[in-house]
Amino acid sequence: MVSKGQAPDAGEASTRNVELAAALHEAGCTYETLATHVNRLARHRGQVTKYDKGTVSRWVAGTVMPRADTAWFIAEALSERLGRAVQPQDLDFTTADECAPVVIRSLLYRENLSETLHTLSELSSEDVSRRALLGAVPFVSSALLAPQRSWLLWAWEQAESEAPALAAVSTSERVGKVYATISMFDQMDNAYGGGGVRTSILTFLNLEVLPLLRRGVRSAERAPLFTAAAKLGATAGWSSYDCGEYGLAQRYMVQALRLCQEGGDLVLAGQILAGLSHLATNLGHPEDGVYLARAGLQTAKRAGSPLGLMRLHAMLARGHAAQQQGDEAHRALGAAAAVLERSPGVEQESVWVRYLDHHYLEAEAACAYRDLGQAHRAEQMAAESVRANPDRRRRQAISRSVLATAYLQQNRLDEALATAHAALGSLESVRSQRSVQALRDFGARLQAWRKEPAVRHFLHTAKPVLGRAS
Q1: CB 3.0–4.6 Å: which of 47, 165, 250, 274 could bond 304 by disulfide?
Q2: How far apart are CA 415 and CA 458, in angstroms?
Q3: Nearest-angstrom CA–CA distance, 347 and 351
Q4: How many CA atoms within 13 Å lie on the side-chain side of 100?
């Protein structure tokens, strides 16, 4: 076995992964530390891996090539340590390289608009045709900084000009049809989860909207159509998130943010940053979640949408709560409630945030209180969210799982299991990995009760849905 700091013998020299060894040395990362990081990243994606220093030694020696998804986890772990983006091909992992060009380009926030349109078109086309392959692309936290910085620099440059309170609405029939289709997708997503509508979103974006923008449109239609394309890209990202395809979610949202620059819709841009914040926090990067929420607040504070600001404050609270920063989380939740009170009503709000209300804030607050261990408050908020959202099945499923966890945190096992069974039942009509992940979190907390017959029964019943992580 070749350990860090040891030279390989002659038989290993020809196969040793020099690039991986060099990256480990530069990062000051031991084999054991890398294995721990990779296991953590896999766990946040719903996978159970048990890599150890022996596994890493075999990767370095070149005697074993990691799977494509594991190669991305290794790259992400080293990106975190080095503070810069590392791709699998930088580590000589050819198994993850088949889709590398579009996978890498789609992480970039490019000033060249034609390149952005081409990247989004190529990504959505590849996604539909080779979904199983692209679905293994992971979330790369280190790639968030550059797009966030580029967007904020542009927004700062625009700050001195007078912006409309809300983005203008076009009266064009062509624009109206596009926006009506987006509204239909949103309704289906809210009712049934992103899995049921994702392919339709990508097809409409790639075959109908992007070709319009590449050909050129009348000046009166330009901003609203770019905003529509940004919204479709963001929705593709959100539905990818719902399908557990987190790397694709990140890439669609980054490209959508760039299109927002052309549309000039600061409310939508704030919501895209809120989506990225939610994604980062839920995948174990709450520091990035906080930064993204703050960027969204800076973006949207002049945009005339209290509901949009409410969501961003809620995402800020989620990021702080995940880091056990209770005072900061409570302040953010207070700010969310205060700005919600200032909303003039949904008809005077941007079309992109009209689905938000105080029940949305209750659901997110329940998650924050759960993470802070404040079980009684989590119970109150989650129970109210369950009562208030009978038609929003994804929110119902998530809030039921959070409610079950709140009961468990209070050692009310029977109520917890009954609620978890209800959450499990609601997943039958919702194609949403976010809902599954919320229930998976509950299942992981049952460790102390695993000998209880009722717990064993629940875990057995839930296994087809929760998989190995349960």
Answers
A1: 165
A2: 13
A3: 8
A4: 17
In the chain, % helix, strand, coil (3-state, to 5) comes to 75, 0, 25
Residue by residue, DSSP assigns 340-363 as HHT---GGGS-GGGTT--HHHHHH
- The label of the residue with tokens 């460790």 reads 447
Round to whole Å and give the CA distance between 60 and 42: 20
Name the CATH code of domain 10-97 (choices 1.10.260, 1.25.40, 3.80.10, 1.10.3470).
Answer: 1.10.260
What are the structural domain ranges in the chain?
10-97, 99-137+144-158+169-264
| Per-residue CA distances from 60 to 5, 25, 30, 81, 150 (Å) | 12, 12, 12, 18, 36
Which tokens is 164 given? 């409309």
Q: How many whole angstroms separate alpha carbon 75 and alpha carbon 20?
A: 9
| Residue type at 38 in one-letter notation | V
**Residue 97 confidence (pLDDT):** 47
Contact 374, 329 (CB under 8 A): no
* CA proximity to 123, closest of 146, 142, 105, 141: 105
pLDDT digit string, tens, across residues 437-460: 899 999 999 989 999 999 999 999
- The CA distances from residue 16 to 9, 92, 223, 273, 375, in Å, are 10, 10, 53, 41, 51
What DSSP assignment string belongs to 171-226?
--HHHHHHHHHHHHHHHHHHHH-GGGTHHHHHHHIIIIIHHHHHH---HHHHHHHH
pTM of the model: 0.83
- 336 contacts 310 by C-beta, under 8 angstroms: yes
Query: 347: burial class by Cβ within 10 Å (0-12, 13-18, 19+)?
Result: exposed
